[in-house]
Design goal:
The protein has eight helices and 20 strands. By secondary structure, it is α+β, with helices and mostly antiparallel strands. The longest helix has 14 residues. The radius of gyration is 21 Å and the shape is globular.
Length: 362
């Protein structure tokens, strides 16, 4: 049976179309995916992301432990800084991609994907040997909202009374509000400015009500969360990253720092960087309006060269585009390829996998 977030009853009351995702019953959309997508690009939307997992790492070896399990380099970071990166298997495959929040010299808050909570936590616990740390699964404690779009700063400040103007992209602060400590970060998964707010289930429910009553934004579901992240080239675990897909294959090498430190999977990553990855994630733009979907085959002439990971007719640009893992021999920009869509092969061209320009506050 699927789990439910603290906002489940509110989704039903708002008429949401519900689907199972990552072991949770989640809203796919309320009005329609295009409408909600455009609200985030042009104005403001709010997402229930309470299904995400949270793990707290504390203890005198907390930083050394996180450095060991995480690909990015967090050494010497100030409190309030957030890092994106991955946890890897020894062969370089991806356990998960995640965010690491530095809350103190001996305190780190890790945010992981909903579908991977149990697997990730078990994997983290497995690798604590030799480190004086406590690793605590806090996923059941927190609810989480993502307020995203050009008006997000004004809405969070004026409707929720949370002053976050000074936060820049990938920073956070803890705010004492209504007798509890909230975590508010300038992060998101849409390519737009916005905030993610972590709090108790009671606070998140009250904040959701306030936001919707204000009329200043739209409730948004997982449907447009996917179309928004896809347009700006952000990966989804299970599509662009997996146990079989390394960060190098996914084009995320900038978040992997083998020159700075040791971490699980380092040897495999160094080898793949030196010798080249067996596949490379690229963007492909189709000539027509046919829509490439996950798993569709990609060809160069008669040669099968890879498969589509995510594809849509982009809402923001109107173009049929996709991300695909293909043979690196065909990954150069401008390379002509074909995608098998039903009975026909549609012509396409390799392009940058960021199909729409991000709009973050620097």
């Amino acid at each position: 049976m699927s789990q439910r977030t603290c906002l489940y009853d509110r989704h039903l009351a708002a008429g949401a179309k519900m689907v199972e995702f990552g072991g949770f019953d989640m809203p796919l959309y309320y009005s329609d995916i295009t409408d909600e997508h455009n609200a985030v690009r042009k104005d403001c939307g709010v997402f229930d992301v309470s299904h995400m997992g949270e793990v707290l790492v504390t203890g005198k070896d907390a930083e050394a432990y996180v450095q060991h399990i995480f690909t990015n380099d967090i050494s010497g970071a100030p409190v309030g800084k957030i890092f994106y990166g991955m946890m890897l298997y020894p062969d370089g495959g991806t356990v998960d991609d995640l965010l690491v929040y530095k809350m103190g010299a001996e305190k780190f808050f890790l945010v992981i994907n909903a579908a991977n909570i149990d697997k990730d936590f078990a994997w983290m616990k497995e690798h604590t040997a030799g480190y004086n740390v406590t690793v605590e699964n806090q996923s059941g404690i927190y609810g989480q909202l993502a307020v995203q779009g050009p008006q997000a700063e004004a809405v969070v400040g004026e409707v929720l009374g949370l002053d976050c103007k000074e936060l820049v992209f990938y920073t956070f602060k803890e705010i004492l509000h209504g007798g509890e400590t909230l975590i508010v970060s300038r992060t998101g998964y849409t390519g737009e400015d916005g905030f993610e707010i972590y709090g108790s289930h009671a606070y998140i429910c009250a904040a959701w009500d306030k936001l919707l009553e204000s009329g200043r934004l739209k409730p948004c579901g997982l449907g447009c969360r996917d179309t928004l992240r896809f347009e700006v080239g952000l990966p989804l675990y299970g599509d662009e990253l997996s146990a079989e897909i390394t960060p190098i294959m996914a084009g995320l090498g900038m978040f992997v720092k083998p020159d700075a430190k040791d971490f699980i999977g380092k040897e495999a990553i160094v080898k793949q960087k030196a010798e080249g990855a067996p596949q490379k994630l690229v963007g492909i733009e189709l000539e027509g309006r046919a829509i490439p979907r996950h798993g569709y085959e990609v060809y160069a002439g008669e040669e099968l060269i890879g498969t589509v990971t995510t594809g849509y007719q982009s809402i923001s640009t109107g173009k049929s585009v996709c991300m695909a893992l293909i043979d690196p021999r065909f990954a150069a920009l401008g390379t002509e390829v074909q995608i098998q869509i039903h009975r026909r092969r549609q012509n396409g061209t390799v392009v940058k996998k960021r199909f729409y320009a991000k709009s973050y506050k620097k």
